[in-house]
Structure formats: C-alpha cells, structure tokens
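Extended Data, panel c. Modelled sequence:
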Amino acid sequence: MINRQVQLEQTNRRNFRVCLETLARPGTTGTILPVFGSHLLALAHCLLYPEVTSCFYAPGNQRQLRAMTGSPGAPPDQADYIFCDRAETTILTAARAGTLMHPEQSATLFIQTDDPGVKTTRVLLSGPGIPGRMARSLPVAGSFLSLLREKNSSFPLGLDCFFLDRDGRMTGIARTTRVEIIP
C-alpha cells in the first residue's frame, strides 16, 4: 500500500514538472504518465485540491477523483481548471480570463485529443520561452485557436491551455504566447 502511495506521489511530481516545463517553453512537448489508465485524470489528480474548482467534459470517474482530491465541481465560467476530451469553442468562451485586479483568477484548460481524425492547424508561436518563432501543428481547429488568441489578447488577462494526445504527449500554450495561424 505504501509503495503504491509513493509511486503515485512520484508520478504526480513528474507530471506537475511536465506541466511547468511545457508552459515555460510553449510549443515544446512533454509526456504525462497515466494515473488510473488516463492521462487527463493524471493531470487532474496532480493539480486539484480542495481550494480550487474544476469542471470536467471528459469521461472518467469524476466522483472518485473528487473524493481523492477534494476539489469541488463548478461550471466552466467559475472553474479554475477545465478538463475536456475535445476542443469546444463554447467551453473556451465561458472560461474565465481573470480580471485586471486578479489576473490569477483565470482558468487553465486541458484538452485531450484522442480522435486520430481531429483536424490540426499549423501555427507560428512566439513570445516568452520561445527562441524566435516556432512552427507547430496543434490538434485543434483554427477557429478554436483564433478564439484562444482573442481571449489572450489583453495581457495579463487570458488563460493557459494544454493539448494532450492519447499517448500522453502534451504541449502548453501560455497566455503570453502569440499564436499566428499559418494559412
């Protein structure tokens, strides 16, 4: 029992570090280790605790996760963390971008793209943590990225967004990252 707890704690620490690294260096990729067979639940498990709210638009045992983390559920316009199994512009529209007095009260969005047929969009990324400009393909439609760019256009307001594939590879896009869609 103790070995499993230690292993889970080590997994949480490693996954948290991947979150930090991919957000500090937008456009780079890190690998999340699964917890309970799910990469998205692994992220929720390492980030959630009783003082933060969360919203799930993904399959999984949310009741078990809430019992383990103590994180209360909330609608997307009130959630600190939003976990999705697809990129929905309605969820992005509702997500909090913070206020000028409290920009830290914005949401962090995690999108898992399991569908191999999901449309990818070529982008040029620039900003803090990116040497020059970086070309990248992101697993979402251009309309989603246009809306994300709009939500992040008034720094320090905005939200951080992570894209996760079915193999646990994750890319972070910080609110400070400029996203230019390549036609």
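The chain has a mean pLDDT of 92. This feature is highlighted in the accompanying rendering.
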